[in-house]
Each structure stands twice: as C-alpha cells, then as structure tokens.
Write a structure and sequence with these properties.
There is one protein chain. By secondary structure, the chain is mainly beta. The chain is 10% helix and 39% strand. The strands form 2 sheets. Strands 1, 3, 4, 6, 9, 10, 11 and 13 form an 8-stranded antiparallel β-sheet that branches. Strands 2-5-12-7-8 form a 5-stranded antiparallel β-sheet, with no helix packed on it. β3 and β4 form a beta hairpin. The longest helix has 15 residues. The N terminus is likely disordered.
Length: 198
C-alpha cells in the first residue's frame, strides 16, 4: 500500500498543475485590450460577442510559453474568428507573432475550426453553427495540439527551421488574442481559461 503522504503529495502536485485561471469574467473586458474597431467586441448576457469589422482583443499581463487554453465557443452561420496563441499586441492589422487557431464552421474560407491557420489546416467540420463547443489548445515544447470537445484535431510539431527563422509565426512566450474577422461574422465566447504547463 502506498504511503498516504506520498498520495497527498501526488494529489497536490496534480492539483497545482491543473488549476485554471479565468480570463473572461462574463461582465466586462477588464484586463483585455483591443486593437482596431473596439466596437466589434461586447459583453452581453455573460457572453463575449464578437461582431463587426476586423479587430483583435488581446489579454494583457499574460506571457506564457507552455500552457493550455480552453474556450467555450459558439459560431453563427458564415462566421469566422480565431484564437491566437504566443502572440503580442499589435495596434493595426492581423497579429504577426504566434499562431492563429481557426474558429470557422461555415465561412467561405475552407480552413475549419481548430486549424493552425495556414500551417496545418483541417478541412473537416466537427461542430455545427449554433452549438456551444469546447476548443482546447495545448502549447508545449515544440508542439501545438488542438481539440474540439476533447477530440484531437491537429497535432503540429514546429520545425527547427521555423523556430530559428525570422518568421514571427513561431512558438514563443506571449499572450492570447481573439479575432473579429469581418462585419458578417458573429461568434460568441462563453468561457476563456488558461493554465500553465510546467
């Protein structure tokens, strides 16, 4: 039989690793900073609603390298959004640093939800518009793993050439950002959480 103190140690170690931090409080956008078109982001009935011209919502004060992000998301017909990881604030244009994880179940862009956009893309649609789903992004070492409702969609391994190259789309310490893509895209986020991976 295992020593009870050893089992307690294992439990506490697992618990500290597994703790989530809520980045969205369901009330306002405190601790978030918008780039272009701040009116594309609003809080309504406990949900972050993204609808309007291009803009990005960056979480301030986050600088993680190995972590997991969990978001509860709902897309509306024809919507396009994205969840950026390992990124940094940029006042205008699309974020240059880090990777975009696509959120798109029916937009004309064929790259579907959980794609590592333009790097390793998924063509399959796993969820329908109007349904809440869980999107998880795990960033650890040189890998990005994306999941929809617990099912792995993408396992991407960054090459040494990309990691050491000049393209800012690479794994590095940074924050997360949420994308408003265009005026016809409406997406809701109900929960956004992060936990560090040691």
């Amino acid at each position: 039989m295992k020593n009870p103190l050893f089992l307690l140690f294992l439990f506490l170690s697992f618990s500290s690793h597994a703790q989530w931090t809520d980045l969205f409080n369901g009330k306002d956008l405190k601790a978030w900073k918008t780039s272009e078109n701040p009116n594309s982001f609003r809080v309504e009935n406990g949900e972050l609603i993204i609808e309007g011209p291009r803009g990005h919502l960056f979480y301030e004060g986050l600088n993680l390298r190995n972590f997991e992000v969990h978001a509860r998301v709902k897309t509306y017909p024809g919507a396009n959004s994205g969840l950026y990881v390992c990124t940094a604030f940029l006042e205008k244009d699309w974020p240059k640093q880090g990777y975009e994880i696509q959120v798109n179940n029916s937009h004309t862009d064929w790259r579907r939800t959980a794609s590592v956009y333009g790097i390793q893309d998924a063509k399959e649609t796993y969820v329908k518009d109007g349904e809440w789903f869980d999107l998880n992004v795990i960033v650890q070492g040189n890998k990005i793993t994306t999941k929809i409702n617990g099912q792995t969609v993408i396992d991407y391994t960054e090459t040494a050439e990309r990691a050491n190259g000049t393209d800012p789309r690479k794994l590095q310490a940074g924050t997360i950002a949420i994308q408003a893509h265009d005026p016809k895209s409406k997406v809701a986020y109900q929960q956004i959480q992060v936990r560090e991976i040691k």
